[in-house]
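notes to self, project folder thing:

trying the whole complex as one job this time. last attempt i did each chain seperately and stitching them together was a nightmare. three parts in total, labels are on each line so i dont mix them up again. if this works i'll redo the older ones the same way
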Amino acid sequence: MKKLSFALALLAACTMLAGAAFAGKLDDIKKNGVLVAGVKDSQPPFGYVDEQSKQIVGFEIDVCKYLADKLGVKLEIKPVTSATRIPMLTQGSVDIVAATMTHKIEREAEIDFSITYFPAEQKLLVKKGGGIKTVADLAGKKVGSAKGSTSEKNIQAAQPKCQVISYDTYPMAFLALKQGKVDAVTTDAPILAGLKATDEKPEMWEVTGDFIADEPYGLGLPENDSDYRDFVNASLMEMWRSGEYAKIYDKWFGPKSKCPLELKWKMELWP
Amino acid sequence: MAMIEVHKLQKWYGDFHVLRGITETVEKGEVLVVCGPSGSGKSTFIRCINRLEEYQKGTILFEGRDIHDKGVDVNALRAEIGIVFQQFNLYPHLTVLKNVTLAPTKVRGMGRDEAEAVALALLERVGIHDQAHKYPAELSGGQQQRVAIARALAMKPKVMLFDEPTSALDPEMINEVLAVMKDLAREGMTMLCVTHEMGFAREVADRVIFMDGGVVVEQAAPDIFFSNPQHERTKAFLKEIL
Amino acid sequence: MKYNFDWSIVLTGEYHQWLIDGLWLTLKISALSIILATALGTLVAVLRMTKVKALEWFSLAFTEFFRNTPLLVQIYFWYFGSYVLLPEAVNKWLYKQDFEFAAGVIALTVYTAAFIAEEIRAGIFAIPKNQLEASRATGLSFLQAYRYVILPQAFRIIIPPLISQFLNLIKNSSLVMTIGVMDLTYMARQIESHTFRGFEAFTAATLIYLVISLIVSLSINLYNKHFLRQIKY
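result (full assembly):
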């Protein structure tokens, strides 16, 4: 594991050194006829493996599919984790990252972001009636999160007295919550709603908590490729204007979906 | 009561019938020499007495008690019966002194100081007390075998078994080991010695038994045994080794 | 575009402290697991020699099972499986403790013990049979004979393979970060995700692992050379 990460870091460094002379990503994608998207594979409803079809599906996959269709290329999906998504993008093994990634200024040092395509807010997932309602209740408790995510930093800042345990994935963190190993899982509300929906008895759990942090999701794009970025931003806005966004949103977060979440937000639209 | 009574002892190694019914009694203080050609079962016989070898038929009584009685603790039995092997078998990672004190401290629960005092006295008796802090590999074969004798004696055994104690030694070292054994015999130790050292047998044995093919062919006091053997096989054997 | 190394982040300040904390945890979990794995491995190896069928089977099953399943799976098993296996009250108490650390120690111990048991068994086989016979003949029990005569000799023989098992354990300890134990690798990864300075963080971690391994290897070899007598038969 250590060696792998080291090799990845080394590779990333090499790509950066050699990256000076690279052509526009947009041309590459069109030439190859494939848009390679890095997505989550265990994060319902954003990206997860569908039980019936055994394919990775989800909200973010549909967004990427829309972009691929706009480009007239095929969509290829590569699973990433919170820890691998940025290195995989910088070394070029994926063209775009749609993996519940918060647009953070410090991440701008490595990659670029599209405009926000999903407005998330960090919350807590707890056992219903377990006595935890707010961040203040977490003093002296164990809180589960996933490595490489912003949630672990935010929760530690909001409640310095809690112990954060970072797992490899959110489902692992949720399993730890179910087994009583942690008292809450914290991350973005829609992810928590998705986790909750995977349980046999979703009514046992609730998403709660006061304000911890805003988590606007942006698509991760290679650094300094403005043609590509412009195309992605324009496509997202067109998706909103045409009503396609609402359709996709309704499919995954609408009242009839497994994890209903009201759309109270409007995408930033450039005139 | 005899020290050891062996009754109709039989043992097989798979199909090979190595002991074919041995009956023998050893009195307290008696020195018995067991001889015979290789493969005659003589080593196997004495190794049955401290249960290093299991047997299938017959009984062995030690101080009147069957050594396979349910209540017999095999470790306690072995603590009473010392054995010296052909290959010395000292513990190479321990000093001479530690070789001798190990069993008394661990089995008899003797304190370290007492055990060392006993050990040094024994090493003096076998003539190597000045080597007490050396390791076995630094000693000659004869010296190692004398340490092995001291190791066995440290348990204050009631009987000593010797399994060809001089066969692996260079000729010039045989006598130093035999001298120790003779001293022991004169001090009244009960001894069963598998050996071809007929000079030793003549000098200190009370009885000599000759084994061949898993049975005792002949036995007698040493002067009679050597001067007037009865069986042809005994005669042939003696002719060969004398 | 050139990568600008900034070694100061791993040499000073908060992230430096993270690495130190991670190093300390790696040392703790490795040392504890090495001690326990050696003890357990020895026990399992000796059980195999007892000539008691049930114990021999247990020992064989133990080694084969834990040697031939991935460590990562075993870590998950001990961490998440206890929930199913143990009574709720026990679990409640356990989870109040540092259960992540404990599960990590158990997984590393059991996994490595299976390998160590095989090394020790090979070492025991290399000891002449008459050593056991000679020690049993003086009245030592089976366990005493192993404790004082057989194992001290076997350990001298197997020191080199044993060192490599210890080094494996130290390296394998990085897997416990998957259950949230904040070891050196975990910390390196945290620094990477906070600063995107993965190259510096992982280089520092790699060097630290290298130094630990070299120190362990050298010190055991020196001990072997200068304090343990080489045995001759």
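what i see at first glance: The two ends of chain C are 66 Å apart (CA to CA).
need to look closer tmrw
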